[in-house]
């Protein structure tokens, strides 16, 4: 395979990544890749290496090959496997905007974005199949048109591409911080200042593989979250967050790391009685901005707070 001819997004056939090893001490290739690609399982990384999809300085490598400072690692991630069972499912989608190239949706809490093993139906992708029957490339693909993710229980703005050209353009905008993603959340406690930035590499939790955590700076993937205090209510605070990066569970992990976990978070939250019953974390993607991938027009969207989020705010105001 000619890795030199592939661009970052694999020309629609997969994803090509090149990373420079910057650590002083040598480390096995497989162990380092686990820290760099926490969204990939250890077994999948091992398979990538064994299948010749990982090179060191454009030369073949083995899992145990030691990396040394300055080495360049080339990774070719093949496209998702076709899912023959993926079928359209009529769904009531809260559409904020739609044209021939993109669709912006206010995702409901509890809605999974894309299918995964053990969760083959009832996802946003299934609903998109029914809504956009002529969507290019959607049939049989694991994550058709998905530019960025929202966790199942996180509500709010999400943009989906309806063409390969739009998909690549929007991915570049997120990578280069042209697109803006803003969130609102209710956290436990009150931060010590009115605004700040959390910087901490995120990787798999060392003891619980279902969770992520802030890890040593020599492992995981760089993550940066900016925050502002909007209002405090005694034991709770309403916060605004802006992402520089988009790591899995980023805001949730960073909030837990500074000892102010998001209210209702089943993985990183505090086990205590809440002001009202929640089905998941009180986290909402309230605003999304980007340049239209085809027309070049600046676009900004806002998603209204869910009813349960408003109820939570009313309750914590009443008790404080």
List keywords for this structure.
disordered N terminus, four-stranded antiparallel beta sheet, alpha+beta
Q: How would you explain this protein's 3D organization?
A:
- Among the domains are: 3-77, Roll (Structural Genomics Hypothetical 15.5 Kd Protein In mrcA-pckA Intergenic Region, Chain A); 180-291, Pseudouridine synthase (2-Layer Sandwich).
- Helix content is 18%, strand content 28%.
- It has 6 helices and 17 strands.
- It has helices at 29-36, 42-50, 124-131, 164-175, 250-257, 307-318, and strands spanning 15-20, 27-28, 54-56, 59-60, 66-67, 72-77, 95-98, 102-107, 155-161, 180-188, 195-199, 202-204, 212-214, 224-233, 236-243, 283-291, 298-302.
- The radius of gyration is 21 Å and the shape is globular.
- The termini are far apart.
CATH level 1 class label of the domain at 180-291: Alpha Beta
Give the N-to-C terminal Cα separation.
63 Å
**What is the number of helical segments per DSSP (H or I, 4+ residues)?**
6
CATH topology assignment of the domain at 180-291:
Pseudouridine synthase
Give a nutshell description of this structure.
With 320 residues, this protein is of the alpha+beta class. Helix content is 18%, strand content 28%. The protein has helices spanning 29-36, 42-50, 124-131, 164-175, 250-257, 307-318; strands at residues 15-20, 27-28, 54-56, 59-60, 66-67, 72-77, 95-98, 102-107, 155-161, 180-188, 195-199, 202-204, 212-214, 224-233, 236-243, 283-291, 298-302.
